[in-house]
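Hi,

I'm pasting everything inline rather than attaching a file, because the server keeps stripping attachments. The sequence lines come first, and each chain or strand is labelled.
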Amino acid sequence: MKSTLHINDEHLRELEDEAIFIMREVAAQFEKKVILFSGGKDSIVLVHLAKKAFWPARMPFSLLHIDTGHNFEETLDFRNDLARELNVELLVRYVQDTINYGRVSEEKGINASRNKAQSVTLLDAIEELCIDVAVGGGRRDEEKARAKERFFSHRNEFGHWDPKNQRPELWNIFNGRKNVGEHFRVFPISNWTELDVWQYILNEKINLPSLYYSHRRPIFKRNDVYLAWAPFMQLKPTEEVFEADVRCRTIGDITCTGVSFSDANTLEEVISEIAATRVTERGGRYDDMRSEAAMEDRKKVGYF
Amino acid sequence: MKNSSGNSNKSLLRFTTAGSVDDGKSTLIGRLLYDSKSIFEDQMDHIRESSKRLGREEVDLSLLTDGLRAEREQGITIDVAYRYFATPARKFIIADTPGHIQYTRNMVTGASTANLAVILIDARKGVVEQTVRHTYISSLLRINHIIFCVNKMDMVGFDETRFLTIRTELEQLVRKLGIEDAHYIPISAKYGDNVVDPSINMNWYSGITFLRLIETIDIKQDYLNSAARFPVQTIVLPQSAEYHDYRGYAGRVAGGSFRTGDEITVLPSLLKSKIHGITVFEKSIDRATTGESVTLTLEDQIDISRGDLITGDGEMPLAGQDIRMMLCWFNEKPLHPGARYLLRNNTHESACVIKAINYRMNIETLGKETSVDGLKMNDIANISIKTSRPIFYDPYMKNRITGSVIIIDEVTNETMAAGMLDSE
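And the predicted assembly:
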C-alpha cells in the first residue's frame, strides 16, 4: 500500500537546508545551547540535523531531558545510547525534584499529568544551567497555537512567551539578541509536517525507539483515546486494561501519550499508515484536549 | 550531482495570502486544505463544534486558519500563520496574513519568504484600496508571481463580464508595478468553483483551476543567473586527530552557485582563494546552488569569520556606507532621522544612523509623500542611512537574500524594521 500523498519528496532537501541553516545560526548567536530531548522522533531528527550541520566537528549542543518520571523504559535506553554515541553531554532534570522542593504541586485525580509541571522544571533548568537557547522539535503543523510560532522565539525573564508581541521574522535573518536572563526557544523544523519527519527518517535511515513500531502492551480507553497503561495510573471503574498490538505516534509522558492499533513493523509500513490516517498526531495527545486553547495557554508560561 | 536548478523550490512552493475578514481568504485556504484532504477528522470535529458554539449556520472553514484565542474571539487574523498541505505534485507552505492596513508589517513578513502571492478580490466590490496595497507589497518584496482570485463569483451570478471588467483593471495595476507574471481566476471559495475542481457554473472560463496552477507554476527561473554569494555563518573546526587541520566555512548559498575549483574572493578582506571542497555532511559534492546549506573548504588558510561574504568570480557585490533602501517600519515607537540602530544583513552586523526619510509611500494611492519627519508603525518609506563600516550587498531587486536587512533596537533588541536595499 503506497500512499497517494507525497510521491515526491524532493522538498525534504529544502526543509533540511533550512533546518541546518537555523542550527548554524543558533551555534553562532548563543552561548549555552541545549537541544530539548524527549526521546520522541522530532527530537531525534533534531539531533540528526545538528550532527549534519557541524560535521566533521562535534555538535555544539548538550541534550536536555526534562524527565517526568513517567517514561517508557525504551526511551531512556535510547537516549543514553544516543548521547554516548555522539559524545555529547546529557543533562537530565526531574519533575519529581521540582515537586519535592515544593516548586509545583502534583495534579490529583484520574487525569493527573505532570505535563504542566514539566514547564516549571524546564524553566528552573534553564536558569540553573544558564541556558540561553533551547532548541526544540516543535512544528507549526502540530497545533494551531504553534502555527504562529517563530523559528527564533523570544522568552522574557520569566520564561514567558508573548504571542501578540513576537519579533517579526523576515527572509532568513534571525534576530537572537536578548538581555540577561532572557532566553530563546528555537524550532528548526517549524516548517515540517508529521509526514515530512517520517519520510526524512526513512530517507536518512535514522534509528528510532522500538515504541514507534508495532508491539504488544497493556492499554485502556479513555474519552476515545487509547492510552498505554502503567502501574501508577489511576483507572476509572469503567476502564479496563487489555493487551493489544499498538504503536506510538508521538512519544511523551506515558500518562498522556495515545497509542494506535497497528501491525506496522517497518518504517515504510508506519508511513503508509500515517499517510492514510484521518486523525492528527496531537489528536492522540490527551494534554491538548483539555480546552480549545490548551496548547496556547501552556506555551505562554514556558511549555516546550 | 544535483541538477542545474539545484534543489530550490522544485517541489516546495511558498505562497502568501493577504485579505480581510470578509473577502473569503480563510475560506479559500480552508477549502484547499479540505478538498486536498489535508484536514483531519479531529480538526474537522473541532471546527464543527466551534462553528456551532460561535453560532455560525454552516461549518466555517475559516476557523481552521485563525489560530490564536484572540483571533477566534474577535474573528480576525492578527499575525502570520503558517499552513501546510501537499498534493502528489508539490508541497505548499502558506503564509496567511491579515489584510488590514494596520497589519502591513505582517503582510511584509509573510511576503518576504514567498515565491508567489495570492490576492483575493470580492467580485461584488472589484479592485479596492486593499487590492492595490497587497499588490504593491508583493511587488515591493519582489514576489515574481501573483494569482488574482476574483472570489464570490456566486454572488454576481457567475457573470463573465463582471470578471473581465475586474481583470482589465488588475492588468493596469500589474503593468504599473512591473509584475512579471500575473494570473487571473474567477472562483467561489465557498462552493469550490475553480479552486480544486473546474467550475460547472463558469463554462466561459477556459483556464486552469487554482490548485492546478499552484501545482504547476514554474519558479525555478527565479533563482538562476544571480551572482555567486555565500555568507559565512560559522567556522567548522573539529580539532580532532582525524581532522587536525580541517577548517570549514558553514553557510547557505545565497545566490548563484559554487563549484569545486572556483576562484573566490572574501569580503571585506578581498583575499582570494580557490574552493577545495564542498560537503554536505559526509558527502562531497561538485556544486552547491542557491538555497543549499553546505560547508566549504578552501585551498589557502586565510582569515575568515562569521559575517564575511564569499563571492564567486562573477559580478562583485556593492560596497558602501551610505545606503538607500525601501523600509517597512514595524514598531510602535516611531522612527526619526538621527536615530541609531543596529543593522543586520545576512550574518553581518553593523551600527547605523538614520540620515533622512526621502519619501513615504502612500500605499493606497501609490503616491510618494515628501517632507516626512517620522515614520509610524506600518509605514513604508524610502530612507538613507550611514553604516559604521562598509557593508557588502546586492540590490534587493537582484538578490532577495543579500539585498535585505533588518534594523534592530540596541536596547530592547527588538526587530524594528525590514529594509530592501537600493530599491525605490
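Residues 1-9 of chain B have pLDDT under 50 and may be disordered.

If the labels don't parse on your end, tell me and I'll reformat.
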